[in-house]
């Protein structure tokens, strides 16, 4: 069942990942979530509806866009590798959680081995 997602709920989900940090390098309207300095999510929290830019496997990105109208090619991002996920209440919460987890894991997989090892120790 889909539900409306509050700012607090999505922020808690994003910051619950090991070593996740947030900042606002593009101004107060957008929050960037990083792991080891690499962005895994961008939250346009002042938009209506809010949306997240999340990294995604290119094949999976196409499938998600075809199935869910709230999933679109990443706004201002590499559209092959990033989706914009609109938190308009149409997506089930478990799917949103999975998409955030997938984005985080894709970014972690691209980190240096030493950074990945440090993250494992921190979990």
What's this, in brief?
By secondary structure, the chain is an alpha+beta fold. The protein has helices spanning 7-15, 58-67, 93-109, 113-122; strands at residues 20-23, 30-35, 38-44, 51-55, 71-73, 82-86. The chain has four helices and six strands.
Describe the structure.
The protein has 123 residues and is of the alpha+beta class. It is 37% helix and 24% strand. It has a 6-stranded antiparallel sheet with strand order 1-2-3-4-6-5, covered by helices on one side.
- Unreliable spans: none
Mean pLDDT equals 93
Distance between the termini: 30 Å
Beta percentage is 15-25%
What's the structural blueprint in terms of helices and strands?
Layout: H1 7-15, E1 20-23, E2 30-35, E3 38-44, E4 51-55, H2 58-67, E5 71-73, E6 82-86, H3 93-109, H4 113-122
Antiparallel strand pairs: 1-2, 2-3, 3-4, 4-6, 5-6
